[in-house]
Amino acid sequence: MRMPMIAGNWKLHKTRAEARDLIEGLKSQLEGLTGVEVVVAPPFTALETAAASLAGSAIQLAAQNCYPETTGAFTGEVSPLLLKDAGCRYVIVGHSERRQLLGESDEFINRKVHALSQAALGIIFCIGETLDEREADQMFDVLRRQVRLGLKGVTPDIMKDVVVAYEPVWAIGTGKTATDAQAQEAHAFVRALLREQLGQAAADATRILYGGSVKSGNVDGLMAQPDVDGALVGGASLKAEEFARVACFQTV
Ligand code: PGA
After folding, report:
1. Cα–Cα distances in angstroms (integers) from residue 228 to residues 2, 32, 76, 233, in the given order
2. Do the domain assignments include residue 139?
3. Is 129 inside any structural domain?
4. What residues make up the domain containing 31?
5. From the CB of residue 238, how many other CB atoms can be counted at a distance below 10 Å?
6. Domain membership flag for residue 36
7. What is the domain-level CATH number for residue 10?
8. Cβ-contact 171, 212 below 8 angstroms
């Protein structure tokens, strides 16, 4: 009952011409694919080009970040309204690279969640523990804090627009994927947190994506886990053939 989502986070990659090529490749490789929602998240500068290439296709467009205000004196920032205007359906918030490199707090991420909800945009809300936190047995505490504070004030109605992405920081860009069992354990825990905070129906309906070195060689096992509803894919989303194979995952 949860439609799987495979989302490609391009990070700081792709000029406009490269974005167009990648999307054209994806469109031809994914033609006719049903039963999975495919999303691409190019850098801001390629969003308009990507939206034009995606016109008429089922692939959805996402941005990688936003600022939680609509307009105003916020030099260098981009609002949900502008992203919607550029053709976005979703926005990624709380990615670990922004938490770690840009110092984004749970409170700031929570403001983005509410701003996006007000703009009627879908939200891909990222959480995940670092290696130090996992080794210090703090994984569950970290996930609990990120969900409590990041989704503070979120009602079951707002939650309909939220997709959670569990991305253990130690697995991002390292080639070191969580095992299927590690992913399932964390996802089941996150779903239990959602149940406590939002109730059974919202927890059951929320898609929880796994992220961290997902590629064609490991997606099938991850997607076979009962609480893994999709993937947020970095490196393996930059080539059409590889990302298309991830989107065409097989579960047995
Ligand atoms: P990766 O990135 O697939 O390159 O590990 C995932 C992400 O950061 O979303």
Report:
1. 10, 23, 35, 14
2. yes
3. yes
4. 5-247
5. 17
6. yes
7. 3.20.20.70
8. yes
Measured over the CA atoms of residue 62, residue 240, residue 37 and residue 28, the dihedral's sign is positive
Query: Looking at the domain assignment, is residue 252 inside a domain?
Result: no
The residue assigned the tokens 């804090």 is 145
Do 6 and 236 form a contact (C-beta atoms < 8 A)? Answer: no
Residue 241 has a pLDDT of: 98
Which residue reads 């503070």 in tokens? Answer: 152
pLDDT confidence of residue 83 = 98
- Can you give the pLDDT at residue 137? 96
Q: What domain count does the chain have?
A: 1
**In the prediction, which pLDDT does 252 show?**
67
User: What does pLDDT average to over the chain?
Assistant: 97
* Ligand 1 atom nearest to 233, measured from its CA: 3
| Catalytic hit among 37, 95, 104, 187 | 95
- In the annotation, is 95 catalytic? yes
Q: What is the pTM of this model?
A: 0.98
Ligand 1: lining residues by beta carbon, under 6 Å: 9, 167, 172-173, 211-214, 232-236
Picking from 18, 57, 58, the residue whose alpha carbon sits closest to that of residue 237 is 18
Low-confidence residues of the chain: pLDDT under 50: none
